[in-house]
Amino acid sequence: MSTSEIVSQADRAFVEEDYETAISLYGKASESREEFRTIAGHPLKWHQTHVQALLGSPGNAKIHEARSHAYLKAEDFMAALADAAKAVELEPSMPKAYLRQGCVRAWGRKV
Predict the structure, then answer these.
(1) In angstroms, how far is CA 110 from the centroid of its own chain?
(2) Domain boundaries, the chain
(3) How many other CB atoms sit within 10 Å of the CB of residue 93?
(4) Does 35 score more than 90 pLDDT?
(5) For a Cys staple, 61 with which of 16, 90, 107, 111, CB 3.0–4.6 Å?
(6) In angstroms, what CA-CA distances link 68 with 51, 84, 105?
(7) Which fold has domain 3-107?
(8) pLDDT of 96 over the 60 cut
(9) Would you say 68 and 97 are in contact if contact means Cβ atoms under 8 Å apart?
């Protein structure tokens, strides 16, 4: 199964509020050697070396950001913060990653 298919399944699980399944699937997608990005909502698959050369190695920032959101919904604030931080590390220009960090700090005051 391709990374984009796994992410699509994870996105569906998230929408259905099955956060544990979404977290598991996003984790599986983040471990893939295949890179996943979207342009205008359409998934694109990239070979990692091409991504590093063309896009400055953004890694799987989108997957980490999405899993951070699922962790937030599941109220696992430490994991949400870790994934949001990883997304920022991989792609500092991703606003949603910063939003997830702010949400953790606002909702998970014990973090």
Answers:
(1) 23
(2) 3-107
(3) 10
(4) no
(5) 90
(6) 22, 6, 13
(7) 1.25.40
(8) yes
(9) yes
Contact 97, 87 (CB under 8 A): yes
Global confidence as pTM: 0.72
* Mean pLDDT of all residues in 72-97: 93
Which residues partner with 22 through β-bridges? none
Q: Packing angle between helix 3-15 and helix 19-30, nearest 10 degrees?
A: 160
Task: Provide the residue type at 24 as one letter.
Answer: S
pLDDT in tens, 1-31: 788 888 899 999 999 999 999 999 998 888 7
Rounded to whole angstroms, the Cα distance separating 54 from 67 reads: 25
**Cα–Cα distance, 109 to 25 (Å, whole number):** 27
Cα–Cα dist 55/76, whole Å: 31
Q: Measuring CA to CA, how many Å separate 99 from each of 32, 37, 65, 66?
A: 25, 19, 9, 12
- Asked if 81 and 101 count as a contact pair (C-beta separation under 8 A), the reply is yes
